[in-house]
Amino acid sequence: MSRTVRDQILSALAGIADPERGRDVVASGRISGVAVEDGVARIMVETTPERAGATEPLRRAVEAAAASVRGVKRASAVLTAERGPAQRRASAPEGAAPGAARPRPAAPTLPGVKAVIAVASGKGGVGKSTLAVNLALALQARGLKVGLLDADVYGPSIPRMLGLSGRPDSPDGKRITPKIGWGLKAMSIGLMVEEDTPLIWRGPMVQGALDQFLRETDWAPLDILVLDMPPGTGDVQLSIAQRVPLAGAVIVSTPQDIALLDARKGLAMFRRVEVPILGLVENMSWFTCPHCGGRSDIFGHGGARDEALKLGLPFLGAVPLDLDVRIMSDEGRPVVAVAPDSEAAAPYHAIAAGVVDSIAKAHREPPRIMIED
Ligand SMILES: Nc1ncnc2c1ncn2[C@@H]1O[C@H](COP(=O)(O)OP(=O)(O)OP(=O)(O)O)[C@@H](O)[C@H]1O
Question: What is the CATH number of domain 113-362?
């Protein structure tokens, strides 16, 4: 059903002229993505950083045209600036035959960075940043050179979790030297602004900041750059998933049904932009009482494993609710760095091993068939 709505949206957009490119907005390649879910349409409109202001009327026209399509409850169009050739190939080509095989995201285009992976969640507070930090450290413990980019521009928590503060250096005033936290190269909007500065980042501004952090930070050489995504599956997340050269995504959720429901939306989002899902992680899976040693499945342990099985995705592991993990994260002393051989660190090492396997597997397999819902 959504595909029909998507096609109708594309037809409606084909009626909008693109004065700058002299054709309609679809034919001119201006529309780099259309996604419809539960009657909500999200459309990506290509521009350049210099032309963003001038493209605003076109964005509004696209939004209005999409909103007028029957079956669309709400439409939002976002401007996205110039992308690299890998994403250009990976994005949904307008008018492409449904079900046609399309190339998967090509090799990473960040010079000197072998793979960029996203850690994402369908909703906030499920422990995504905690996982991103400890996964990055566990990958590093496997001898890999690892960086961590805090793309959670709304609630950057990586500086606190790695115990970092102060603005990163920029020796030439252009390139940014990442901070080093526990051996990881790290970058976060939280390092660029005071903690009490209200973060009113919207649409293209978020993209601008992230593009800068991604492309103007001296990451190289890295084996893996871990991206801590903003929670949720809205425009910002969709835009990042389309524009960053992702080798794959790890989805984290708690075992609760509602969190899993949100996780499913996360899965759908990455699938839509043809980013391989490296696997699911269940966080806060169970709680072991520090006093009696008794184990409680507070949120109903096992939901993510079942979901992964059902979807044919790798289940990367379960992380228990552990008081030390919380206290150490909040103190800037991540458990995998401070107590790498502890019981609390063990799940992260196992997840890191699974992630490495999944990346290798995802990039060995032939291109997937894009299945649209
Ligand atoms: N396995 C765990 N055991 C105990 N506490 C945890 C665990 N995972 C995360 N936490 C704690 O839960 C809180 C939320 O975690 P975190 O900030 O990583 O979540 P998030 O999904 O990134 O949140 P947000 O969406 O708000 O950025 C933090 O206080 C963190 O220390």
Answer: 3.40.50.300
The CA R_g of the chain, rounded to the nearest whole Å, is: 21
Q: Residue whose CA is closest, atom 16 of ligand 1?
A: 127
Q: Give backbone dihedrals phi and psi of 26, rounded to 5 degrees, phi first.
A: -80, -50
What is the token pair recorded at 118? 């996203």
Per-domain boundaries in the chain: 2-82, 113-362
Whole-Å CA distances, 165 to 157, 160, 300, 343: 11, 8, 37, 29
The Cα–Cα gap between 224 and 213 comes to 15
Average pLDDT, the chain: 81
DSSP string, 308-350: HHHHT--EEEEEEE-HHHHHHHHTT--HHHH-TTSTTTHHHHH
Residues with CB under 6 A from ligand 1: 121, 124-130, 152, 155, 157, 231, 283-284, 319, 321-322, 325-326, 329-330
State the Cα–Cα distance between residues 319 and 237, nearest whole angstrom: 24
195 compared with 77, residue with greater pLDDT? 77
| Residue range 2-82 in CATH 3.30.300.130 | yes
DSSP three-state, residue 39: coil
277 and 249 Cβ atoms separated by less than 8 Å = yes
Least confident of 3-7, 169-173, 329-333: 3-7
Among 150, 147, 170, 172, which Cα is nearest to 161's?
150
Verdict on whether the full-model pTM lies above 0.80: no
Q: According to the model, what pLDDT value does residue 221 have? A: 95
Please give the angle made by the CA atoms of 258, 229 and 88, to the nearest 5 degrees: 115
Residue owning the nearest CA to atom 19 of ligand 1: 127
